[in-house]
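Subject: Sanity check before I submit

Could someone independently write out the structure tokens for this chain? I want to compare against mine line by line before I put it in a report. The sequence has 363 residues.
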Amino acid sequence: MGSSDHGQTPSGDVHARVASPRHRALIRILLFMLPIVWAVPTVGSPVGGLEDGRTGKIQFESSTPSDEFSVINGRHRPKVIVEGTLSLPKRAKPPYFVAVIAHGSGGVRPDREAKWAEELNKAGIAAFVVDSYGPRKTTGTDTGDINVSTMANVADAYAALRLLSTHPWLDPGNVAVIGFSRGGQVALWTAFDPLRKTFMGDSMLSFSAHVLVYPACNVQRVTTHIRKAPMLHLHGEADDLTPLAACREYMNRLRANGANIHTITYPDAYHNFDFARPARYAPSVTSAAGCRAEINLDDQKYLLLPTRHPFASRKEFGDYERSCTTRGATIGGNPKARARAYVDSVEFLWKAFGMPPGQRDAR
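---
Independent answer below. Compare away.
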């Protein structure tokens, strides 16, 4: 059992449905009257909506912005077709709660993202694993050779939210986001209103819960405009790639700006503690543990921490990032932390989704 830091009491947000209750009810009735083939995974051309109730691999449109300030200023291009895999619980009944899963810098892995989807399905929660690398012809790597900004992963998460809200078997008011390492940053930053507004426009849709698993915290994106949806932050106490101390500081800064974050830590757990393979030292892994900087979304400035001295340009900030980046960290699984993280996340999501404890097993 790990230790905990408490944020505020979880509170929900109001979400708009994309279709009238009568229309959605009619679609559900028609789908239940059709053969079970609707639940068989299908792969086809990109779709703009999921009104047909499909599951499995689904292609959909997203964008590939270059950085945070490009996003805030409305520069999201180029457009791209990405892919996600939707799986539904077998024992629960619709409408299902659903979680978007954002992968780490190693890309989608069968022993992490797919396993998390399986655990969520067992708990009665649908899962949508987004692949941000494959469609962009990017090889997922932990060695720093990724040529796609994390803002592209954020774009994919919002595009997935919009897409899932059209599925007749899913509840558009209860869509969570879960991410690991790089994906943990995605899970966090999707709670930032400056990003949500530019990606979602006039839509009232937003994520109802966020689970950030060992995110990197040394280069801190900050804003005073953070949504009140509950967030769960899970971290290994022995993590030397994305050190816990930096994350404690970062989460406290965000709490001071209104973020509703609850932290749980796991003893003797390193980065990627939910991997199947044991922890080992990886000399080629890129580490930003020695970096200390802030990207302020409100002022659109790059700042050196702790002095908050501004960088003169993005190039100067980029030069600093390269200078403070090193290689080598311990990564790999801890069976106890992995098992506990599944339980902690499911319990958090059920509470965030508003399901009373006595009804959870029945799902």
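---
OP: Matches mine. For the report I'm noting this point. Residues 5-43 have pLDDT under 50 and may be disordered.
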